[in-house]
Amino acid sequence: MDQNSQNKQTPSIEIKAKDDSMEVGVEMPDVSEEEITISSDDGQIRIEGRTPPGEPNYEVSLETEPKISASEINPSVEDEQASIKLPINPDDGSISVETE
Question: What CATH number is associated with residue 24?
């Protein structure tokens, strides 16, 4: 286990409500597209970014209501930013952010 995996930092997060969905943007400076992972398990979405050696990694978890399955997540990664479009109507659902 490398030292980065023990040190975590919270990325900058922006949540936007659209007509029929919600979009989450997570900014992770110094992280390339290849080093960003997005996963989902039982309605919890985890976004991680691996930084250069000696720097703390980025990590954030999102809890959605209603629960979102992995197949419903529409992720994209570009220019040190992970974006996720979630099929949650802003009038009927919510997203909570958990940091470690």
Answer: 2.60.40.790
Domain range for 85: 3-98
Residue 9, classed as helix, strand or coil, is strand
**60 contact partners, CB below 8 Å, separation of at least 6:** 10, 11, 13, 26, 46, 47, 97, 98, 99
Q: For the chain, how many structural domains are there in total?
A: 1
pLDDT per position as a tens digit, 3-35? 444 688 889 999 999 888 899 999 998 888 888
pTM for this prediction = 0.79
DSSP secondary structure letters along 18-60: -SS-EEEEEE-TT--GGGEEEEEETTEEEEEEPPSTTSPEEEE
